Every structure is written in C-alpha cells, then in structure tokens.
Amino acid sequence: MNIAASHLDIRTLFLAQTCAMAAIAAMLWVARSPADEGNGLKTWMWAVGCQALAYLLLANLSWWPMPLSTLLGNALGALSVALFFTAIRQFLGLPIAIRRLALMFVLVTAAATVASGLTPSEHRLIPTIFNGFVYAGLEWLNALALWRSPRPELRRVQRIVALLYFAMALLLPVRAGVLLLDAINVGQFSIPEAWNQPIYLFGFIYIIATNLGFLQMCKMRAEAEVRMQALTDGLTGLPNRRALDEAMDAALGAAQRQEQPFALLMIDLDFFKSINDRFGHHTGDQVLATFATRLRGGLRSQDQAFRYGGEEFIALLPDTRADSALVLAERLRQQVGSAAEPSKPAISASFGVAVWQPGDDGDAIFQRADRALYQAKALGRDRVALA
C-alpha cells in the first residue's frame, strides 16, 4: 500500500510505533535507578522494549517468514501486555496474579501458533480477533485499578491514564467483533481504511499518552515522597518543625475566617537528659520513638502531632476549646507515661496548653503554651497547665 497525502499507511504507523517505543525504552534504560524497583518503572521499561519488538515483527516487512514473525510478534505482544499490567500493579502496590498472566501468555501464543499454519490472511486475522478479547480484559483491569486507587496528588493524571485504558478496553473487543462478523475474511492490513486507520492512529496516541502518563505519575509520586521526607522527622516518623509551620499557618487562617478556636499543646519529656546519661543515647532514641507512637495513638483523628525539636513535641487540636483541650491533654499525659523497668527508664511528660484567641498570631499562642509548659515543670513535672 502506498502512502498518499490524504492518509497514512498502516505499516508506516507500525514502524512509527516501533521507533517511538524503542526510543522510550532506551531513555528509560539510561535513566533507570534502584528506586525504580518499587514504583514499577523498571518493569514498564521492559514492557516498552517488548512492545517495540512486537510491533517491528508485526509490521510485515518481509525480512523473515510471515508465520514466524506473526508468532513471535504475538508472543512478545502478550509479554508486553503482561508486563504493563504488572508495572501498574507495582506502582499502586496491588497484588499481581502471576498464574493468570502466564495463562494469558500461553493462550495468546497458542492462538498465534495455530493460526501460523493457516493462510496468510488467517494467520494475521485470528490472533487479532482472539487477542482483542483477551487484552480488553486486562486493559479494563488496568483502568479500574488506576481509577479506584488514586493518590491525592496524582488523581488527575491517574484518571486521564485510566480513561485511555477504558477507551482501549472498549475499542479492542469492538474491532475483534467486527472482524469476527465480517463476511469477507481479510487480513488486518486489508481492513477498510475508513475505520482501520483511525483505530491505528488512536493506538499510536494511546501508546504515547499512556507512557507519558505513567512517567508523569512516577515523577509526581517521587516529588511527593521527597516532600514528605522533608516534612518528616526521621527518628519518630512524626511531622517535623517545617510541617508544623505549614500546619500552623493553615490553622490560623481557618480560625480567623471561621472564628473557631484551636488548641496547642506543648509537650516536653521529663528528665530526658538523665535518661541519655544513665541509659545511653540509643535508649534515649527508643524512648523518643515510643513516646511519639503513644502520643500519636492518643490523639483524635483530626489532631496532629509534631516533633518540635529534641525532646519537645507539639500537638495541634483543631476546633477545640480550653476545657476540651485540658481533658485531652490529661488523657495524653496518662497514656504516654510508663513506670520504670529493670532495663528501661520511667517516662513522663509535662504539658502546656494554650488556646487561640482573636488577634493571636503564631508567636502569641506559642509563647502562652511555652509559659504553661514552664508552669507545669515548676509545679513538679508530669502534669498539665493552661496559660
């Protein structure tokens, strides 16, 4: 078939897809890193490479016997579909049905093997019909997984990629059904151009868009994880002081707009220096981590705990008045404390409570909480005080 100005030759589209996929696979190979083991990008790279080879074999270039190229092309195509499916599940942290994917590969390869002994048109047509129904199921599962499990920062991109998978999951069985019902038994390169070319053009767009979408998802998740690490205390796993600054800005803004008070608890571990001196810094670190776990476990779902620095912690209690803050602080004081054991120190903490008042900025409420904490320590520690 010649390439006319008004339309594209299907074989040319296959070769264009081969070049695009090969370029993507090469770039992913160059840019790979150990971090890509967990996000599915390495698996995606192998899927892209297999798909590039599959398109090259299915382009019917007459470089090798047609039955052999069809058989190998379909086998590599099935492998690439299985790898794409696996990469998406790895990215989302979902289980992978290895046996079902292996069964799919065996069935697709078997169908291509059976068809390879038939006429030239049949050994192209039969795999196209069979694969259309089989691959549609996996495309549908990919779409559902991406649609149902979006991370907040990835929701928009995941939904776009999911819609592309939904579209392909509908297109593949429609094309297979039309071929199955067609009275004229023709090969895939002889299907009327009026609807064959749009299908392959959409396939080309689909390949580029899903690859770009998956790469963007990996990039955005990596950025979110870096940001999370920057806002998280490495020892306790609690948000750090930088995260507290952001949370305080949000709490102050909400309080000023809605005139709803929030409470701030400033918490200090009692006699922490003596714990380090008597039991060592390793035990001190364990005490901090244990204390943070207990603190977080004692808060309500809407509350936030932060490591302020050293042995000091902050709890931010939205929409909370003084009486409720005192009750919660007293409960926390009892929950985080523990008696001494033969090889473990006693743990107790002092709590300073401050409640936002109209006109307060961040410094004002922190200063009151700090004064309350100083008062609790002056009264003997292991107690709650309100400023």
Structural description of this entry:
By secondary structure, the protein is α+β, with helices and mostly antiparallel strands. It has two domains: 221 residues; 146 residues, 2-Layer Sandwich (Alpha-Beta Plaits), CATH 3.30.70.270. Helix content is 67%, strand content 7%. It contains 13 helices and five strands. Strand 4, helix 13 and strand 5 form a beta-alpha-beta unit. The radius of gyration is 31 Å and the shape is elongated.
Number of strands: 5
Average of per-residue pLDDT values: 85
Output the helix-strand order. Answer: HHHHHHHHHEHHEEHEHE
Extract low-pLDDT stretches.
1-7, 183-190
What is the global morphology? elongated
Radius of gyration: 31 Å
The share of residues in helices is: 55-70%
Main sheet? 5 strands, mixed
Count of helix runs: 13
What is the beta-strand fraction? Answer: 5-15%
Strand order of the largest sheet: 2-3-1-4-5
Q: Please identify the structural class as seen in this structure.
A: alpha+beta
How far the N terminus sits from the C terminus, by CA atoms, comes to 85 Å
Compute the number of structural domains: 2
